[in-house]
Amino acid sequence: MKRFVIAAALVAVGVTTAFAGPIEDRQALMKGIAKATKDASAYAKGEAPFDAAKVKVLLQVYVDGAAKLPTLFPDDSKTGGGTDPTTASPKIWEDMAGFKTHAAKLSADATSAMAATDQASFAKAFGVIASNCNSCHGDYRVKKD
C-alpha cells in the first residue's frame, strides 16, 4: 500500500508539472538555477568550505538547465498575463539563435568548471558562469520595477 501511495504521488506531481506550461516551467527552472547560484557563490567566495562533489552537483544544475531552457520559449509564451507575468524579453524570440548560444556557453562553462579542484580555481570558473548569467539577463530579460 505504501508503494502505491508513493507511486500515485509521483504520478500526480508529474502530471501537475506536465500541465504547468512553459512560463511556469521556465520560472521554476530559473528558481532552481538561482538557488544553485546562491550556494555556488558561497563556495566561490570561501564562505563555505570547498567541496568538489557538492560543487559538481550545483554545476550540473546549470548544465541541465541550459539544455532545457531554450525549449521553454515557444511562440505562444511571449506574454505572461495573470499575477505572475513573464520577464522574458521579446528579444528571445527575435534572436533565438543568440539565446541558444548563451545557453550553450553556460553549459560549456559549467562543464569546464567541474574540473575545479579548490576554492581558488572554482572562484575563477564561477566568475565566468556569473558573467554569462548577467550577460544573458541583460540581453534577454525585462527588468522588474
Q: Any descriptors?
A:
145 residues; mainly alpha; Four Helix Bundle (Hemerythrin (Met), subunit A); 6 helices; disordered N terminus; electron transport; Cyt_c_II
TL;DR?
It holds the Pfam family Cytochrom_C_2. The protein is mainly α.
Characterize the structure shown.
Keywords: Electron transport, Heme, Iron, Metal-binding, Signal, Transport. There is one protein chain. The protein is an all-alpha fold and 145 residues long. The protein is built from six helices and no strands. α2 (22-45) packs antiparallel against α6 and α3 runs antiparallel to α5 (96-113). The radius of gyration is 17 Å and the shape is elongated. The protein starts with a helix and ends in a 5-residue tail after the last helix.
- Major beta-sheet overview: none
Structural class: mainly alpha
CATH superfamily: Cytochrome c/b562
Q: Round the mean pLDDT to the nearest integer and report it.
A: 86
Outline the fold blueprint.
Elements: H1 2-18, H2 22-45, H3 52-68, H4 91-94, H5 96-113, H6 119-140
